[in-house]
Specification:
By secondary structure, the protein is an alpha+beta fold. It contains eight helices and 14 strands. Helices cover 37% and strands 24% of the residues. It binds (3R)-3-hydroxy-3-methyl-5-(phosphonooxy)pentanoic acid. (3R)-3-hydroxy-3-methyl-5-(phosphonooxy)pentanoic acid (PMV) is lined by residues 13, 16-18, 32, 106-107, 138-140, 189-190, 278-279.
């Protein structure tokens, strides 16, 4: 039996996806484009062990069952089938940032799990194939297998493939994560998307707008144009949240909106700063290396911001350690 440890970073979507295409495979309804962020990480060890009576999940030091374990088992089952393995697995995972609160812990978590499980099972899979496996558990996780700027396709006819668009240095970009709470979010992204898709009067508009913004962000990244990327990224986040809110799905808090007002006040003063928000209350502020210090000082004063994590574009998931067979 082999033990493999992988580290993966969360990614934050500059062009959001929200909503799933019909059919199997957990393919998004729109394309998205993200940046993988070093400065936050998940470290996961997978060991297939004939002595186990069932799969085990230890997350941040606590034994976890129910739905999180069922999601892990679903991924492991695919690997077991492909590798012809009967053994259950022990999965030990730790995040160095708040878990399940809209900080993309599922992205880094399933990216790390997919790569560790595939390697522990001795499967010689390509990166895109591991990414495809991760996507089936959490679509955003497909992007964390790669570093830098990554696009995940979506919509009718798309295979749901994540591919790198540009390396971590393509734009001078830093991301300040304004932690608004250490608690888990109340509505999972899967549930929020389902409700939005079924009941938001603006969902059709989002399906048109999302891909247009994604294409503009890709052009901006390839041109190294921070402002073009920032403007479209802020638009994409606000369009996604407007669509969700119209279905009664609200992730922002007073702190998020106060931080957004501060980002806009900074821009009015000529400081390069744009906002993006995921399925949680933490605002992420996109800044240049030059504007980072001023932006961090100002955001730290926003009431409700507990702490600020400094992150920058980083590498994809990678193996840290491969234990020997026993
Ligand atoms: O794939 P999930 O369940 O992690 O959902 C991700 C949803 C957003 O973070 C809001 C958007 C995105 O493209 O990452």
């Amino acid at each position: 039996m082999k033990s493999v440890t992988v580290v993966a970073h969360p990614n934050i979507a500059l062009a959001k996806y929200w909503g799933k295409r019909g059919g199997d495979g957990n393919v998004p309804a729109v394309p998205s484009l993200s940046v993988t962020l070093s400065g936050m990480s998940t470290t996961t060890t997978v060991t297939f062990d004939d002595g186990l009576a069932g799969d085990e999940l230890v997350l941040n030091g606590a034994i976890v069952g129910d739905r999180p374990l069922a999601r892990v088992t679903a991924l492991l089952d695919v690997v077991r089938r492909e590798a012809n393995i009967g053994a259950h697995a022990r999965v030990v995972s730790r995040n160095d940032f708040p878990t399940a609160s809209g900080l993309a812990s599922s992205a880094s978590g399933f990216a790390a799990l997919a790569l560790a499980a595939v390697r522990a099972a001795h499967l010689d899979w390509s990166r895109p194939r591991v990414s495809d496996l991760a996507r089936r558990s959490s679509a955003s996780a497909a992007r964390s297998l790669f570093g830098g700027f990554v696009e995940l396709d979506g919509g009718e006819g798309a295979p749901g493939l994540a591919l790198p668009v540009a390396g971590p240095d393509a734009i001078d970009l830093r991301v300040l994560v304004c932690v608004a709470t250490e608690d888990a979010k109340l509505i999972s992204s899967t549930e929020g998307m389902r409700v939005t898709q079924e009941t938001s009067p603006y969902y059709a508009a989002w399906l048109t707008e999302g891909p247009l913004l994604c294409a503009r962000i890709r052009d901006g990244v390839l041109a190294g144009d921070f402002r073009a990327v920032g403007e479209c990224a802020e638009r994409s986040a606000l369009a996604m949240h407007a669509c969700a809110m119209a279905a009664g799905v609200v992730y922002v808090s007073g702190t998020t909106l106060a931080a957004l007002a501060e980002v806009r006040a900074m821009r009015a003063l000529g400081i390069d700063a744009y906002a993006t928000i995921d399925a949680g209350p933490h605002l992420k502020c996109l800044v240049t290396s030059q504007s980072m210090h001023d932006a961090k000082t100002r955001l730290a004063r926003v009431p409700g911001v507990v702490r600020i994590l400094e992150t920058s574009p980083g590498p994809g998931a990678r193996v840290l350690e491969e234990g020997t067979d026993r």
